[in-house]
Specification:
By secondary structure, the protein is α/β, with parallel strands linked by helices. About 15% of the residues lie in helices and about 30% in strands. It has 4 domains: about 100 residues, no CATH class; about 160 residues, no CATH class; about 55 residues, no CATH class; about 230 residues, no CATH class.
Length: about 725
């Protein structure tokens, strides 16, 4: 241990006085002694002071030697503790500052794009470039790119760049991405969801290039030992209406009226609280003075606050009495009615008792059988529910024809009231509202508007509804429409042509159905997709679906996976062949996923051997017929497609086809919990249990024993707006 002297000087080893290396007698190796400077020279005053101090010391009682030593040691121990405390405090403060700075700038180990080993990668835009990412290639994509294809293998890694602000917008166009043999593709991670905008566009026509074995064309493929991790920004996938929305956004609908040669003053009275049209009247004040008096009395007895809209048809001035004009001026606030003349076009919107500040009006003079434009009056109001609406009145002469009319409609967006907290939905997102009618085609899409006045259970949509959508529980039956958000910040999209070009498809579809697809093969390393949008995916051919787990076996702990394979929060919409296909795969979790406007069975278990798969809180709606299987087809497809039809047999649509379903479950040992089948051409949920495996699994001669297998969990599922109903069949 090192000691310091009373002055705090640094310790030093003692040397012999002659400066030689010879050690004096009594020397202890390693002993440290304080280094002291030579004594200062003493002048006379100093000498006197020293003598006085020594004399004073001789007068004090002398302390025992041991007591003096103990006191010195106690003082030294106390000083040591104080120094240690100060040093420790300084160390902790410095460490805290360092860690604070370090944490601010240190990479997050949960975020794949912050891996310090990654190299920024910009392949450019060359549609002929074939990319191979292999051992030692650890790439971060930070800019747009177009290439022919990408193969990631032998430990190669491709990561989409991101930042904390979510400011990046990266688009990758390619014909296909193949991930195999240790290759990895990451966009975000389970513990670090992607914040920016990432788009993968799969392009190409069906007659271009050769097929990749087992995968085909226009795909993201995951082969053995491949890893695909896509994790977008988390948001609530779907919820229910908590209040009915009406046709046009108004409880009584919008109102439109237009007529020629409706002579006199055409009047509409509107309820200011509901936008309901209360009175539809016409007063011929051109021909009859009695009509003028009737109008005067009507206004005087009208309820204050009622909205009044007036439009001149043809002419209204000849017998419009002065006292009636004064009444209109005083009660409604018109400035122009006192001077209204022959065939002058006048339009007015105001409030009874509201005065001039609550009205809007316009006049146009009649010249040469025309008014040179339209007299248009309009004013905005709010219902008691907070819905903005506009009342319009117009009047004009056009080529000798008098025209007048009215319009009442919601403006500035329509507010939807929802059951759950939807604060994760953003302005610009696209949403879908399910039909609550018998027809699934009353399902509607909307665009969200900014809505600072909305609560966390409300959104405002840009478009006015074309159909009513129930948001209530009626007579104990939950009739509330499902509402799902379609937009995600990770988008995988198939690029399509403007028109149909595949002859075999064009007889049934007038648009291109050759989209992209994602296919996962057996023995993959890791596949997890969350909050990803899939658009224009799938192809009208066997094996090419938006998401397809192909003969993967057990994909949960039973198959040796530490983390259960799952699809969560996907938005699969406007696609061309199913939604999610589970083929020869067990233990998959499909959760909070939307399948909207798709062809053929949507959530589909294929061969009848798929077990232990869980469909939890998924929404499927507008499931349309497709061509792949007889059960996918409508009547015209059923009769028109002759492939694999025996001999001259003519299929009977009602029994051989017409079974397209939102959920097609082919083995009882699967779980359906909290799902909604909200609109299919035929059935919402169809259980079809095979005694022997079908499809690719048929050659394995596996007995499914479905008739002896207990049904998995079936709980709290909703089915509506389907041509048929939930269906159950053992085949």
């Amino acid at each position: 241990m090192q000691d310091t002297d009373a002055r705090g000087n640094s310790p030093a080893f003692l040397r012999s006085q002659n400066g030689s290396s010879h050690r004096s007698s009594g020397y202890v190796p390693g002993r440290i002694a304080p280094f002291r400077p030579p004594p200062p020279s003493q002048n006379h005053a100093a000498a006197e002071f020293t003598s006085a101090r020594q004399e004073a010391r001789t007068r004090l009682p002398s302390l025992p030697v041991d007591q003096h030593r103990h006191q010195a040691e106690a003082t030294r121990h106390k000083n040591t503790l104080i120094c240690c405390a100060i040093s420790s405090l300084s160390l902790f403060v410095a460490l805290g500052i360092f860690l604070g700075i370090a944490s601010k700038y240190a990479p997050d180990e949960n975020c794949p794009d912050q891996n310090p080993r990654l190299k920024n990668w910009s392949p450019g835009k060359d549609p002929e470039k074939r990319i191979f990412i292999k051992k030692g290639d650890l790439f971060r994509l930070n800019s747009d790119a177009t290439v022919h294809s990408i193969v990631i293998q032998d430990g190669g890694l491709l990561v989409f760049g991101d930042d904390k602000e979510g400011s990046k917008n990266i688009t990758l166009r390619t014909r296909f991405i193949l991930i195999r043999d240790g290759g990895m593709l990451h966009v975000g991670a389970e513990k670090c969801h992607y914040k920016s905008k990432a788009t993968i566009i799969l392009y190409g026509k069906s007659n271009e290039d050769a097929d990749v074995p087992e995968f085909g064309k226009k795909f993201i493929g995951v082969g053995p030992k491949g890893t695909l991790e896509l994790h977008g920004h988390q948001k609530l996938s779907w919820t229910l209406l908590s209040k009915t929305i009406y046709f046009s956004g108004l409880a009584y609908g919008h109102y439109t009226f237009k007529k020629n040669f409706s002579r006199g003053l055409n009047v509409r009275v509107i309820n200011q609280d509901t936008a309901e049209i209360l009175e539809v009247l016409k007063f011929d004040t051109h021909e009859y003075s009695e009509e003028s008096l009737k109008l005067q009395n009507f206004l005087k007895t009208g309820s204050p606050g009622r909205i009044v809209a007036i439009a001149v048809g043809d002419s209204a001035a000849k017998n419009l009495l002065e006292e009636t004009r004064v009444t209109i001026q005083n009660l409604l606030g018109s400035k122009f009615v006192r001077g209204l003349s022959y065939r002058q076009a006048w339009a007015f919107v105001g409030v009874i008792g509201g005065g001039n500040s609550s009205c809007n009006e316009s006049v146009r003079n009649y010249e040469n059988h025309s008014t040179g434009g339209k007299a248009l009056a309009q004013k905005e109001f709010f219902t008691v529910d907070g819905q903005k609406f506009v009342v319009k009145a117009y009047s004009e002469w056009n080529d000798g024809v008098p025209i007048s009319g009215f319009q009442v409609e919601a403006v500035g967006g329509v507010i939807l009231n929802l059951l759950d907290d939807v604060s994760s939905w953003e302005a610009g997102d696209r949403i879908v509202v399910a039909s609550t009618d018998y027809s699934m085609y009353q399902t509607e899409e909307f665009t969200l508007l900014p809505c600072p006045e909305c609560t966390k259970h409300q959104v405002k949509v840009k478009e006015n509804p074309q159909f009513p959508h129930v948001g209530e529980i009626i007579d104990g039956v939950d009739m509330r429409a499902e509402v799902g958000v379609l937009t995600r910040n990770i988008l995988i999209k198939g690029e399509t042509e403007n028109t149909c070009y595949r002859e075999k498809d064009c007889q049934f579809f007038n648009y291109d159905t050759f989209g992209g697809h994602i296919k996962i093969m057996k023995n993959f390393t890791s596949v997890h997709l969350s909050y990803v949008e899939l658009k224009q995916m799938g192809q009208q051919q066997i094996g090419s679906y938006p998401v397809h787990f192909h003969l993967c076996g057990d994909v949960d702990e039973k198959g040796g996976y530490n983390f259960k394979t799952y699809l969560e929060g996907l938005s699969i919409h406007h696609c061309f062949s199913r939604c999610v296909t589970v083929h020869g795969t067990n233990g998959l979790l499909i959760k909070d996923t939307i399948g909207y406007d798709t062809l053929g069975h949507c959530f589909f278990t294929e061969d009848g051997i798929e077990q232990r798969n869980t469909f939890f809180n998924n929404l499927g709606l507008v499931t349309k017929p497709g061509t792949l299987l007889p059960t996918d087809r409508n009547s015209s497809m059923c009769i028109g497609i002759r492939d694999k039809v025996y001999g001259n047999y003519v299929p009977v649509p009602a029994t051989d086809c017409m079974a397209v379903s939102t959920f097609w479950i082919s083995h009882p040992n699967n779980h359906l919990i909290n799902n909604a089948a909200a609109g299919s051409q035929d059935a919402g949920i169809w259980y079809l249990f095979h005694r022997v495996a079908t499809g690719d699994s048929h050659s394995l001669a596996i007995e499914t024993k479905s008739e002896l297998t207990p049904l998995g969990i079936f709980y709290n599922n909703r089915v509506h707006s389907n041509f048929k109903v939930l269906y159950y069949l053992i085949k």
